[in-house]
Amino acid sequence: MRIGIKVLGCPKNEADCDVLEAILRSKGHEIVYNVDEADTIVIDTCCFIEDAKRESIDEILDFVEYKKRKPFFLCVKGCLVQRYASQLVEELPEVDAWYGVLSPYRLAEALEKKVRFLVEEPETVYECAPRSKFSSYAYVKIADGCDRSCTFCSIPAFKGRFKSRSIESIEAEVRELVQNGVKEIVLVAQDTTAYGIDLYGKPSLPKLLRALDSLEGEFRLRVMYMHPDHFDEEILSSFCDSRKVLHYFDLPVQHGSDEVLVKMGRMKKSEELLEMIFSIRRALPDAAIRSSVIVGFPGEKEKNFEELLEFLKVAKFERLGCFIYSDEEGTVASELQDKVDEEIAKERMEEVLSLQAELAKESLSRFVGEELEVLVERSTKNYYVARSHLDAPEVDGIVQVRKDVNLNLPSFQLVRILDTDGFDLKGVLV
Fold first, then answer.
1. Of residues 166, 389, 167, 415, the one with CA closest to residue 289
2. Dihedral angle at the C-alpha atoms of 56, 60, 61, 66, nearest 10 degrees?
């Protein structure tokens, strides 16, 4: 088969599809990047929020339309199918195959056999698997699924219960990636703070980090998606004690008003969240803290929004994402009354982003004059593009490094920071 793969949604999908590519190549199939050359198309979908659903549906419709001009086997897989299989099959008969949340191994087998429908219990984790390509960074899925009860989140409905991979499996995958030149390993899961609870009887992220930190090779580790309600001193200590774990904390707080946090099903109140942030900065003054918030949650009054703004002014996150609430089928929040007008929610999001632009510039300015180790990944005409510990791939800023010498890429370099525009840093090689 000549197979084209379209990945939508989160980095966990990207990691899974990279593994799928490698498995298919090992079976003698060809991966192509031009739809005109493909006899099979696989679309990996997402349905985390309404925008993700819309993007997935639009992509399917585009390929259905293209299929009228050029025949090919069209397969749609992933979260959207896991959740809405019966409706999709009925409304889009042009699609040849529908697969739910499957491991790359099961998916490859189903594709080879041209299975038309395969939606079972979500199969979210798998043992160490090959990769199809290697770049400066790679996502490594340490777990998937979720046992939390946030009232706005539909993930448990289509991802199932939380499941972890073994430390040995993750170690083997990281070792292979590093041997193939990967410089940054990005650990992902629906909730990385819960890692290992199903395998080892208690949350074991520190245990995993210690194991990965001891591996040989020139690489660094970045941890994403840590649930703030379950972030504790043991996790913080593991960051402090590690040589390779970046001082980057991805902690989506979701709001800064206690009233809204309770409605969201979150455990920590705003003061506890701030104390968590302060404790990180006391222990690691160079820490970069990324978070995300939701505006327009049902019942969010003006005073709640003002509390959120005040919370952000105190927290001073280096990086922040802001999202407008949308009802997700089957969630507790979707049944709540007192919905916030969409225009008001949009205005609130714009106000949050405007405030964050000011706060980020102030926060990042403390690095001006400092020396940071960066990962230089590519070159433009005028400067090198790098990332410091502040910058997760694809979601954060970059460091623009003046091109004074020729560098082998990717590589770690020491850079003196000269300036910031509030999102990116600018520097020169030391």
1. 389
2. 140
Q: Which of 124, 129, 72, 69 is nearest to 95 (CA)?
A: 72
DSSP one-letter code for 245: B
Could you read off the pLDDT of 352-390 as tens digits, one per residue? Answer: 999 999 999 998 999 999 999 999 999 998 899 999 999
Residue 401: predicted pLDDT: 96
What mean pLDDT is reported for the chain?
91
* Cβ 360 vs Cβ 397: under 8 Å: no
Is the per-residue pLDDT at 235 higher than 70?
yes
Beta bridge partners of 401: 384, 427
Cα 48 to Cα 154: distance, rounded to the nearest angstrom: 7
Q: What is the SS3 string spanning 157-185?
A: HHHCCCEECCHHHHHHHHHHHHHCCCCEE
Contact (CB, 8 A) for 88 and 95: yes
Residue range 168-180, pLDDT digits in tens:
999 999 999 999 9
Q: What is the mean pLDDT of residues 92-101?
A: 93
- Asked if 185 contacts 209 with a C-beta cutoff of 8 angstroms, the reply is no
Lowest mean pLDDT, pick from 46-55, 134-143, 314-323: 46-55
Most confident of 127-136, 142-151, 155-164, 242-251: 242-251
Percent of the chain that is helix, strand, coil (3-state, to 5): 40, 20, 40
For residues 244 and 254, is the Cβ–Cβ distance under 8 A?
no
| Helical ranges in 92-143 per DSSP H | 104-112
Kind and range of the H or E run holding 60 = helix 50-67
Q: How far is CA 201 from the centre of its chain?
A: 26
Assign residue 312 a region (left: φ > 0; alpha: ψ between -120 and 50; beta: otherwise): alpha
Please answer whether residues 158 and 110 qualify as being in contact, where contact means their C-beta atoms are separated by less than 8 angstroms. no
> Among residues 167, 249, 176, 179, which one has the least CA distance to residue 212?
167
**pTM over cut 0.85:** yes
